[in-house]
Protein: Amino acid--[acyl-carrier-protein] ligase
Organism: Azospirillum thermophilum
Amino acid sequence: MTTTDVKDKQAAYRDELVKQGLLIPTGVDGLYGRSGVFEDVIERFDALITVWGRGDGAEVMRFPPALNRRAFEQSEYLKSFPHLAGTIHSFAGDERAHRTLLRRLEEGQDWTEDQVATDVVMTPAACYPVYPTVAARGPLPGEGRLIDVFSYCFRHEPSLDPARMQLFRMREYIRIGTPDQVMEFRELWIERGRDLIASLGLPVGIDVANDPFFGRAGKMLSSSQRDQKLKFELLIPITSEESPTACLSFNYHQEHFGHLWDIRTADGEVAHTACVGFGMERVALALFRHHGFDPATWPAPVRAVLWG
């Protein structure tokens, strides 16, 4: 299948979702409103994740979809993904500049000349606010920490693929502790994730993955990540059987965030971190693809899992 064929299938599925009223176009690729039906599926899936993770005793944290700019810079996200980052700018001019802005706006010209970066940026991944928050508390307790987060995230990659939105939701469990604690968590959730998605009647595949790092060093970083098996993805066909979509990810960051934020274990060692991330919209899109656009007609076992 050619790249053109893949893009045609992605656009066709997007168009059908819009026709069915599940996605509401805004005139910007990758930016959509959602219908009540779509949101209900998201809420039911979110509740299912909570059921599967309830016994672990995770601490719940909820952050807005914006991040402290200084914390964002410290995270080193810009070193690897500058093309995906979303900064927030505001007007900083005087009255004269405001008059110029109004004139340019009326004439259909660029009006952004006097916009300057603010102290906040768009959150690229739900886990990013967690690390400085945990670091500020001091050394970890002996059992480490387990955090449950859920947030809208932004990545600047406009696309006709409905599974590649610019603003999307991510639910994560983040494990922070010793290497053994963190690896045990990741292995547990790889199995849980497979079973959780299988309970929804969806085809499941898990494979070693890598991130599309930016720049000349990107290929080296990607190869290293894949060779060390730091990232696994749970794949579900949405617009293509040949190129299934990553709907869950299982990431082992080693001591990367521990070093950046000086997070220490109870015995003073640099903490390791791992996370499992659920692409909320992607799982909903997979459910609509495989079971139909009307949840009332979905298979009874799937409805029982989501609606009881």
Observations:
- The radius of gyration is 21 Å.
- The CA atoms of residues 73 and 79 lie 9 Å apart.
- Residues 179-198 form the longest helix (20 residues).
- The mean pLDDT is 94.
